Amino acid sequence: MIKKVKNYLIIPIAICALLNLALKPQESLNIEVYSTKGLNLNYDMARLDDSHHINQIQLANPFQSSFVYFPHLGKSYIGFKEALAFKESRGNYFTVNTLGYLGKYQFGAETLKLIGIYNPNQFLYNPKLQEKAFLANAERNKWILRKDIKRFEGKTIAGVEVTESGIIAAAHLAGPGSVKKFLRSYGRKNVSDAYGSSVRYYMMKFSGYDTSFIEADKKAKAVL
After folding, report:
1. What's the number of domains the chain is made of?
2. Over 178-193, what HEC string results?
3. Which of 145, 163, 172, 209 could pair with 80 in a Cys bridge, judged by C-beta atoms 3.0 to 4.6 Å apart?
4. String of DSSP letters for 69-103
5. Residue ranges making up the domain that contains 171
6. Taking Cα atoms as reference points, which of 3, 69, 76 lies closest to residue 40?
7. Count of alpha carbons within 13 Å of 169, Cβ hemisphere only?
């Protein structure tokens, strides 16, 4: 009988102990540690509920309702490189296409050599190095095309307004030499890659981003 009484008493005692812990003030918790005050957060949240954004909604989650919330990068440098990465590989660091181009930004082995990377396999499995490579290649291309950026930015060529970001994106696709030919021929020499993407298309698709973060550098290298 005494044993049964003890068993009945254990349950309410345990409940009281749990309630005491739950309601006890957490004096040691410093809320300031978790504050975002003073941080430079370059994101905002967009509510997408119209047909203009339907592709972005479906990519976010095709099974959700029509109201979807997700980080919107806008026309920032991060927005630029992530948009370009999505076009190149759907943002997959570890992919290799049918022509042997590697990674999130689809680099060729010869381009990698220009920015100091000589081991494509090591490059493919190192996301941090891939990000360094993207920036170094963009810096190098910006230096090569610096005079063309100054000369043609703001003009309309082949129906496309020329912007610095469009030029850098097109150089990523086809190389700075092909971009020079396009600009200096006023659109008559429009090179396309094996999958049909052209210099003109990239200049149009990636126009208007803020690429001031990219510094023109003749000797840019991808260094960890």
Report:
1. 2
2. HHHHHHHCCCCCCCEC
3. 209
4. EEEE-TTSHHHHHHHHHHHHHTT-TT-B-TT--BT
5. 74-205
6. 76
7. 31
Does residue 191 sit in the same domain as residue 86? yes
Confirm whether 54 is domain-assigned: no
The model's pLDDT over 62-95, given as tens digits with 9 standing for 90+, comes to 444 444 444 568 999 999 999 999 999 999 999 9
121 and 28 within one domain: no
- Rounded mean pLDDT of 107-136? 97
55-63: average pLDDT: 42
In a domain, 65, yes or no: no
Tokens of 165: 């970001």
pLDDT number for residue 168: 98
CA–CA separation, 3 vs 215, rounded Å? 79
182 & 78 share domain: yes
